[in-house]
Design a protein that fits this description.
With 328 residues, this protein is an alpha+beta fold. It has nine helices and 15 strands. The strands form four sheets. Strands 10-11-12-13-15-14 form a six-stranded mixed beta sheet. A five-stranded antiparallel beta sheet has the order 5-6-9-8-7. A two-stranded antiparallel ribbon has the order 1-4. A hairpin with a 2-residue loop joins strand 14 and strand 15. Helix 1 packs antiparallel against helix 7 and helix 7 crosses helix 8. The longest helix is centred in the C-terminal third of the chain and has 24 residues. The two termini are 44 Å apart.
Length: 328
């Protein structure tokens, strides 16, 4: 909750990309409004929890039935099925318990029959607030956004009734080093983890009304976010390597074979699956764009892929060591 520069929120463990979590947030808001509740109360309620899944469960632990202890964690595989949303899968797991001779399976089955939950005594799971901590101590904030691990951020602004989406981006210019105990904020909004450097960048702002009424294309926002991050990373790469003939990208040693105007040939030295990758001569934009296109097409450049994904006319020929000549 908050603004792009100052926000506080809860963690979501997985599937945080817009095509899933964006849709999920929209659905939760829709249900909330259908019950006659306000956006302000949604924000206030959310911040009473430590995790998005905990909020959706209204604080109820699906493993022991406790309320108000935070999000379950350190969960043993023997009880994981209890959090599944698909009741058929849960029924199948219970049937397997009924046919098992394992003493733990028998105990779990007895727990379910007796209490409705597989682990009421918390033998096989813990909670984030078992130590007596407050929900606020587990929140993610703009003061410590952890962009290495928090890939997507959804900021609800209750005043302007909008959702702003942020996506993480890495700094490929960073040389790396020892992993820091805590990341340190640097100029430009970068967070230095020692071995890498990340920050969040804005992708889009949408109205909550549009989100609730199904007019937001979350898949397009996801695509745009990945594209914006990718473009920034390649632009930073170009700034770092533009005056060098030999460099490393993604751990692979590469050589700038030829550069003239907007045409670039980049050759990967390390073989892939026993084969040296093709050189690609690119007539498009600048060197940064050329590197971007090459890295996308690092497998043997197929005409249908290049024309389909990039809308480019392609002529395959031998020319200056290049296997594919890409022409706008």
């Amino acid at each position: 909750m908050g603004t792009e520069k100052s926000w506080r929120g809860v963690y979501n463990h997985c599937d945080s990309y817009p095509s899933y979590l964006g849709e999920d947030i929209s659905a939760e808001l829709r249900e909330w409004f259908n019950e006659g509740k306000s956006l302000k109360s949604f924000c206030e309620k959310l911040l009473q929890y430590t995790d998005w899944r905990e909020f959706k469960n209204r604080g109820l632990c699906p493993y022991c039935g406790a309320v108000g202890l935070g999000q379950p964690r350190s969960i043993s595989g023997c009880i994981l099925f209890a959090s599944l949303s698909n009741r058929e899968l849960i029924a199948r797991e219970i049937e397997e318990l009924e046919n098992s001779d394992d003493p733990i399976d028998k105990e779990i089955l007895e727990n379910i029959k007796r209490t409705g939950f597989p682990d009421p005594e918390c033998k096989w799971h813990e909670h984030t607030r078992d130590d007596g901590s407050s929900p606020e101590e587990h929140h993610i904030t703009s003061d410590e956004p952890d962009p290495l691990f928090i890939e997507w951020v959804y900021i609800i602004n209750p005043i302007f009734e909008t959702i702003t989406v942020l996506h993480h981006v890495s700094d490929p210019r960073h040389e790396g080093g020892e992993v820091k105990e805590r990341p340190v904020r640097k100029r430009g909004g970068w967070w230095d983890y020692g071995h890498c450097r990340y920050k969040h960048i804005k992708v889009a702002t949408v109205s909550i009304k549009d989100a609730v009424e199904g007019r937001v294309d979350w898949e397009e926002i996801e695509r745009r976010g990945e594209e914006i991050a990718r473009d920034m990373e390649f632009r930073l790469l170009y700034e770092k390597y533009k005056d060098k003939e030999k460099f490393v990208i993604d751990g692979d040693f590469r050589t700038l074979v030829f550069s003239h105007g907007t045409a670039v040939i980049v050759e990967k030295i390390a073989p892939l699956f026993g084969e040296v990758e093709r050189n690609v001569l690119v007539y498009r934009g600048d060197k940064a764009t050329a590197l971007k296109l090459y890295l996308f097409c690092h497998l043997p450049a197929r005409e249908d892929r290049l024309s389909g994904e990039f809308g480019l006319r392609v002529q395959v020929a031998e020319r200056g060591g290049a296997d594919a000549i890409i022409v706008e």
